Amino acid sequence: MLLKTTIQGLATAVKGLTLTVRHLFSARKSREQLDIKQADYFDKQDGVTTVQFPNEKMPIPEVARYQLDVEIDDCIVCDLCAKACPVDCITIEAIKSPEAIGKTSDGSVKRLYAAEFDIDMAKCMYCGLCTVVCPTECITMTDQYDRVTTNLADLTYTFAEMSEAEIKQRKEEWTRFQAEKEAAKKK
Length: 187
Hints:
alpha+beta; three-stranded antiparallel sheet; two-stranded antiparallel ribbon; 7 strands
């Protein structure tokens, strides 16, 4: 019984070493990058599969969901992205304007200022719902996936470009406009 167990143990060790040595010699060359759509994708599995990041990067699919980006000049501050977000990682504060303040690249009229437009990527679950509901397509998923930090606060990205003085000024403009409107109604 002891002899049989010893022989089985040695046979298992030899099998493991054989597999390790075979892998060691086949790993001397790098595996070529293939498109997953190719018919022989799974047949060509020889070579090292480790990607030497950051010198080498894996090809990213076109429909990949990674880092969010906002083109704030195209944003009409409609708040649909924040409402669609299931984890509330988008924070938007809008300030109304008495008149149109410009147009986006697709011709939509802008009537709101973005006092605050923050995205907390630490909370984001990369579902892409915010990009789907955006009427001006100003919020998009980029191919950036390698933003690393040890501080979670660094993962909150601010896209609004208004200073505190501008925010105060725009709020005062709107308050003044509302007061003038109310005074005109009373006359």
